[in-house]
Design goal:
By secondary structure, the protein is α+β, with helices and mostly antiparallel strands. The protein contains 15 helices and 15 strands. It binds zinc ion (ZN) (6 copies). One zinc ion binds next to loops.
Length: 465
Amino acid sequence: MRLAPNYQLPIAEALAVLEDSAVDRFPVDLHAIQRQFHKLFQIRSYGMFMKTHCTSREECSHYLGSEDGAAVFDGHGRYIVYYNEEKRKQRTRFTIAHEIGHIFLDHHREHGISILTANGVGQDLYGRLEKEADCFARNLLCPAYHAKKLLDAHGITRGSNGSDGWARTKETRITENLETIFYAEDLVETAFDVSTAAAKARVDFLKADMNKYASYQMDWEPTSHIRHAAAWYCSKCGLERFPGSSYCSECGRKLFVFQVNPAGFQYREAGMNDNKQFSPCPVCGNKEFSRDAGFCKICGTPLSNACTHDATHLNHPEARHCYACGKPTVFKQTDYHFRVKQSLMHTIEGDPSMIYKSDIQYDPLTNKVDECPRCLNETFSEGAQYCRICGLELVNKCIPEPVEGQNGYYYTPDPHENLPDARFCEQCGAPTVYFQKHGILKGYEEALRELSGKSAHEDDGDIPF
Ligand SMILES: [Zn+2]
Ligand SMILES: [Zn+2]
Ligand SMILES: [Zn+2]
Ligand SMILES: [Zn+2]
Ligand SMILES: [Zn+2]
Ligand SMILES: [Zn+2]
């Protein structure tokens, strides 16, 4: 009879169970595994055992040979995993994973026994079976590959002489500017939702398990896509921390916690183009900007949300506090913040930038229209500034606000030239003559309203009642 534990099989079996159950995130959902293998085993609490067998909890623990849990084999191929629901959740998760390990490692059948106990199989053999089931549980709940990846992402490596354990040795994208102190075991405990003791065992056996991957050519590849639900969140408002942030962009707090947080939230994914302009515009969805544009020509929103303290600190459009220094962002002082938030609620399907497509032709050298967009006159004299039929400006300029000069007097700066479809100036954000003065262009809100009104109308025919 073999008394030396074989650790290759438990690791391989754990990986196979994860793959078969299509587990796609950590912490592992044991119910998903049970559903996948519902013909093989059921999971029941000690309370249910006590009810059906009319026993006390003590008698139940005594019968099952454990205060934590046990797998009972029916002799034909089906099992019931019992767990003591009065233990801590993390401990129970490990217990259930351990019992599932006995099932997949075929320990009951191997010894022709319905409940594995030290009395039943003898102390030495029992020791071997327990070690193998623990190894299975460890690699089911926190596979070595994924634990290693988690630690790598946080700059935690193993000391070269082994006895130093796993410690932070370098900065990574995630840890940059993160002032919170954390240890390998904390991350493992949270990310995999296991007890402190199990997290410590995972870290302690990490090197050994990784070595087994290598020496037995274990195929962890099919599980490599499993993601972590745990992340760093603001301790106050629950916003997920951006890598590199010192301060929460939503509330300005400096304290972040690593947790699996169903109540945590993320800002909407926001793109930025090569010119460091928001793209698409976070308010109206427009994507067409001049290279040097500072404002969206459709809705007038600034194309970056800089810090009021240091203009090189560029923030997410939803941010009110600078990620780098905690000072207010430009958007915080204005109603842009409100408009960005509001546009989130009215996200329109498809590509909203399409509705702003302009068919006004113009000369790219002079920015002059080829045809008057108001009266459709096409003939202009050389150097003409205005349409000779209706008097419209041939170049769509902005209408700048008066500004205070150095001597205290107000003056109106020279207007900027803009393309004929601009509602707002790309240089200064002021409204344009085609938009505000003449009403030739529709505002983005009106365009969006029309678009949503139109699609609602078009959908009418499809409603079956
Ligand atoms: Zn066991
Ligand atoms: Zn916050
Ligand atoms: Zn815009
Ligand atoms: Zn800043
Ligand atoms: Zn005209
Ligand atoms: Zn301007």
